[in-house]
Amino acid sequence: MEGVDYLIDERKKAQFDVEAMKVAWAGSREAFELSDRMAKLVANDPAFEKFTRPMLSRKELFKNTLRKAAHGWKLIVDLRLTEEEAKWLRLYIDEPAYTDLHWGMFIPAIEGQGTEEQKKKWLPLARRMQIIGCYAQTELGHGSNVQGLETTATFDPQADEFVIHSPTLTSSKWWPGGLGKASTHALVYARLIVGGEFHGVHGTLRKLVSSLNSAVGKPVSNCIAVVCIYRLCGKMNLSIVYHRCFNEGFIVQLRSLEDHLPLPGITVGDIGLKFGNGAYNTMDNGVLRFDHVRIPRDQMLMRVAQVTKEGKFRQSDVPRQLLYGTMVYVRQTIVSDASKALSRAVCIATRYSAVRRQFGSRNGGPETQVIDYKTQQSRLFPLLASAYAFRFVGEWLKWLYTDVKQRLEANDFSTLPEAHACTAGLKSLTTTATADGIEECRKLCGGHGYLVSSGLPELFAVYIPACTYEGDNVVLLLQVARFLVKTVSELGYKQPVGTTAYMGRVAALMQNNCTVRTVEDWLNPGAIVEAFEARAARMSVACGRQLAKFENPEEGFAELASDLVEAALAHCQLIVVSKFVEKLQQDIPGKGVKQSLEILCYVYALFLLHKHQGEFLATGYLTPKQAVLANEQLRTLYSKVRPNAIALVDSFNYTDHYLGSILGRYDGNVYPKLYEAAWQDPLNDSDVADGFHQYVQPILKQKLHSAKL
Amino acid sequence: MEGVDYLIDERKKAQFDVEAMKVAWAGSREAFELSDRMAKLVANDPAFEKFTRPMLSRKELFKNTLRKAAHGWKLIVDLRLTEEEAKWLRLYIDEPAYTDLHWGMFIPAIEGQGTEEQKKKWLPLARRMQIIGCYAQTELGHGSNVQGLETTATFDPQADEFVIHSPTLTSSKWWPGGLGKASTHALVYARLIVGGEFHGVHGTLRKLVSSLNSAVGKPVSNCIAVVCIYRLCGKMNLSIVYHRCFNEGFIVQLRSLEDHLPLPGITVGDIGLKFGNGAYNTMDNGVLRFDHVRIPRDQMLMRVAQVTKEGKFRQSDVPRQLLYGTMVYVRQTIVSDASKALSRAVCIATRYSAVRRQFGSRNGGPETQVIDYKTQQSRLFPLLASAYAFRFVGEWLKWLYTDVKQRLEANDFSTLPEAHACTAGLKSLTTTATADGIEECRKLCGGHGYLVSSGLPELFAVYIPACTYEGDNVVLLLQVARFLVKTVSELGYKQPVGTTAYMGRVAALMQNNCTVRTVEDWLNPGAIVEAFEARAARMSVACGRQLAKFENPEEGFAELASDLVEAALAHCQLIVVSKFVEKLQQDIPGKGVKQSLEILCYVYALFLLHKHQGEFLATGYLTPKQAVLANEQLRTLYSKVRPNAIALVDSFNYTDHYLGSILGRYDGNVYPKLYEAAWQDPLNDSDVADGFHQYVQPILKQKLHSAKL
Ligand SMILES: Cc1cc2nc3c(=O)[nH]c(=O)nc-3n(C[C@H](O)[C@H](O)[C@H](O)COP(=O)(O)OP(=O)(O)OC[C@H]3O[C@@H](n4cnc5c(N)ncnc54)[C@H](O)[C@@H]3O)c2cc1C
Ligand SMILES: Cc1cc2nc3c(=O)[nH]c(=O)nc-3n(C[C@H](O)[C@H](O)[C@H](O)COP(=O)(O)OP(=O)(O)OC[C@H]3O[C@@H](n4cnc5c(N)ncnc54)[C@H](O)[C@@H]3O)c2cc1C
Ligand SMILES: [Ca+2]
Description:
Oligomer: homodimer
GO molecular function (chains A, B): acyl-CoA oxidase activity; FAD binding; fatty acid binding
Keywords (chains A, B): FAD, Fatty acid metabolism, Flavoprotein, Lipid metabolism, Oxidoreductase, Peroxisome
Largest interface: A-B, 155 and 153 residues
Bound molecules: flavin-adenine dinucleotide, calcium ion
Distance between the termini of chain A: 47 Å
Structural class of chain A: alpha+beta
Shape of chain A: globular
Radius of gyration of chain A: 28 Å
InterPro entries (chains A, B): ACOX_C_alpha1, Acyl-CoA_ox_N, Acyl-CoA_Oxase/DH_mid-dom_sf, Acyl-CoA_oxidase, Acyl-CoA_oxidase_C, AcylCo_DH-like_C, AcylCoA_DH/ox_N_sf, AcylCoA_DH/oxidase_NM_dom_sf
Family (chains A, B): Belongs to the acyl-CoA oxidase family.
Subcellular location (chains A, B): Peroxisome
């Protein structure tokens, strides 16, 4: 029945003030109100309906996204929304679109890498959307290894232009969102070649580079600031002066601003279907090839490096590390998105687990709600706790980013490597856990979770690329490991900072073992954090010791890569746990709010401890007995979460529109709505399916031999 | 270039005879040849093209599947294929269709549960496909708890008919494959009510049942064979004689054999979109409601229980446990399918990992193949090993099934509970690992794995329901746990059999710890199996001890469910490991074949040991040092797998058609084919996207205010 709240009894069980928790989740009352306003704006606007999305063909789907994007932009303009409001509006529209890249990558990149002059020229155009831009870095052949990009940008001093070219098939730009159909411009990353044009194919280039290498004495492709000049006398009696530089970003117009047709020399299109039905297929991830496309010199972004009119390459005194600042920013938003995606999935699975009853009926009474099964709790509640943990670590990363920015402005680069490693690691940890967590939530919903109308399949399909873009999650953990190994090796003379500060206490962490003796002893933030510190420190040190056995450190690193990744993950988990603990040391208003969060914090930590108990035991920090006590405490904690479970997911304040799930409906009215929705499938348009007379009737009537198949 | 084998160098590295390994994988030369013939038959027939599948609308998709099913059936008839050949043919067509349920569930259920007479009547019709049947058990409200089904089948002695009825919304049949559009008949499971008609709604039924409960003294819904009679005088002055029986299966005709329209009283349709694009959406999983539909008495399957003309309910002397035999059969096929799905994913990821190069170029030479990175190996090779492990345990399960069948025919039920627990556990273990493994393979392919043309998204989407159907994987592990706990508690007086035989040596397994001292010591099947036995036995015993602390064993079981599931998994892993080891004690012909399989067996076991080292350490069987040695050995083993990796996946003998993956192409010609495929997306039909003029141009031209959105 409409209007009835089938979860009312669950909501009555809550032991904390849900409204206050909403504020704690949002970060502040203002943040809550802003986000709430935008959520309702979208939810109440039929233009943003999304139920039919998965049934659309690719073309209809894309057109529909263009429509929504336009409608969204109209609202932003008409209602004069602030940038912050616009961001939330786009988030709640909940449909990947070219605008994500335009606002999220193209504009920030120009802001970060453009000169004042360039910003003055391009930003107003972009901010008014008179041009639409995307971020074209990845190529068919290179993603993780950005240094290996093959697209060339050769400076032609005669014309004062760069010639952008795709010398090989694998140099085709491939993946950039918004590139395929929507963008008029792209920020293209390419190998800068100054001092002469280079027309070689890959093989020739390789010869050239290898000659350069022997000349310079170390691999050119690995050096960033070294600019080399080399003279080659080729068979064609051609003299080439070659400057091998870092990849640079170039603003390249792709399509006419009049008729939107690709400009001469540009081949551009969509790369085809991706995972899922609607999901990320609303985005025109694109392919792009250049055939000697010319752009003015001033369309190279020149904040950190310039090419002069005369064809001279110059590094400005703004250090290249500055660009890391943008990376910290982007990855910080990815962590924050992880908490959103995971909390959505958890909200759906939690509500449905309270609605769903299976087994355990006594005397003909109702069956047990599946949320009451301990196995269900032990799969679901750690994810609920993770959603909160990621929310708070994301908040902290936002602070870290502003801190880094301020320091950079004051020319203080000291914390940058640590901040960079930390965001890389947290991006990897949170996105992997979220992707796996969404799928676990789907399984927690049994068969019905497999229906698109549960919302979970599409959420999974649209989310998982976060594990890959902005750095493959394994490659990122290897970067963290590299930083940890370095930190350990320098302990003798360099004080570790930020999230690695605990390494400064390595001697104590190696020596002192856990002192927990009872189940209750585990309810102690100090004991918890120390356990995670000791495990992470011991694993890093063990890796360091193993590495020391290798003559060639690079070989050692390669050989031990798996162990290094485990150590890096241990370090990142420590960060999440300690930021959660730190959060709880702050004042958090509202009846029962802090207490409920404390329970979740313990759940998160002890769940990890149980899952990775092998590492805690192997490093000798824990005894088996202590691990058992932790596990027992965990069970008790689940019972404490149970009455609050629905209220804890209500606190995310998600509208039914944003959730997009019949199983996760706020009112719990699942079955009638599932039943209704089924009939909307096109297959139910007719009683007898299209194709029956051609392909089934002949079988039933044993007349297949004369049938036309 | 066409015709070039880009993986030829990889193939040359193989240290074993690939053709012999193909036979080992297939099980026998005959099996290999049969499967190879069917694979080629499908691959070379353009009627089975599947590249465009994900781009079709639901209706086109379904029609296309009907066409393929008809074409497949025509081949089967025309070529007079055997049942075995037909099974492989359907497998290689690689598209879920109503025929799967017809042949895989409907027919076997009649074979298992029908009387001789019933089989004589229905099987010829079904085998000639003059009728199409599905298996309708699950309802909107009940899946795992089959005992809770609400559909009623009330016997009307006057008419000698059953009245099939859906008394509640949640009693609607929901999920059965082939039900929505294709089937003419369904095998419907329903609560049998004999001795009077029952017209109550759920509430009334509940009252009735609770009265029955108090009369009988224990929950009626839990007792199987007890038939109770009770007399109620309702308000309507109606006297009801009520036989509460086990759910029974009924053959119900759903659609006219003339025009395929649903028969009177039948509401039937498709339940809507499921995960993925093509994937399982080729199947018409259906919803079905009955409004007092009448069927003749002899359409209840009566092998184990009968209702007589007079309305008497009788159990025959064929025990109900016999039905478990069918379950063992079906789950055995699921394990075998797991090895197929996982090996497909692994084949794609392995080949692509050899093609893909990223980082590590020296002197301008080619970059490192990503398969050479230890992290890539440590993620990929255990999955490769798992595919082989599941293949062999599946083979063994097939043997187990024939053994069980023979025993049942000889009225020996002694091994049935163990066989039942064992197949339940192996179904759970292999399908969970396969689902996770496919997704890991996708991630191993970086960005390109996210493209549908990689084959991996659709493989994942179509595979994952295997974790849910035929028993939710967690519910199944709980069943295994129950069996283990029982086995442990009876150790004093009952010799454990089959896969639990090791429990008979529990004292030794509790006492003796691992004796490994060097890295090489781990290359010892005895040491490996003993480690897994000790861990499983110790975990089961620990659970038993914990359970003993509870007054009410059921409460204890519920409270400790998570730990019990872990113990059950440990037991199941032991089975897989020991069946792999046993396989290697057989004669396996072919140069290097056995040696290569031995390496994989060690990889599988030591990978599990590392992953679950917490359990091996916590139970005290291993020391941290021994765990480290195992991990070191594992690294060495990866290096031994490396040169054989491509050959090991070639040995699956999959055609490019069956793989359906550009990344997994046999010839490794990935990039040109990815590039070509992109242009086939409908979005690339025109240079300017549909919707541009309406929804993008007005933005660029700042004319949104006057645009029609
Ligand atoms: C949906 C989506 C949207 C995207 N949007 C954009 C965009 O807007 N703009 C853009 O420029 N790009 C975009 N990308 C591309 C994305 O950034 C790359 O896919 C990503 O950087 C991963 O690189 P890759 O695909 O080359 O993976 P690979 O590097 O090829 O990864 C393959 C495997 O190799 C492993 N591997 C690679 N290097 C190493 C190493 N050194 N050590 C150990 N293992 C290694 C990886 O772990 C992985 O398992 C997008 C991608 C997707 C999926
Ligand atoms: C693609 C697909 C095809 C199918 N085909 C058919 C078909 O042809 N015919 C047919 O009859 N059915 C079919 N089904 C239905 C399928 O058999 C059920 O979905 C399955 O049995 C799981 O039951 P459920 O959906 O009720 O899950 P639920 O039991 O509702 O599971 C929900 C959650 O509760 C948990 N849970 C449930 N009980 C317990 C317990 N006692 N202890 C602890 N945890 C518990 C589960 O672990 C899960 O996390 C199909 C399903 C799918 C997805
Ligand atoms: Ca589709």
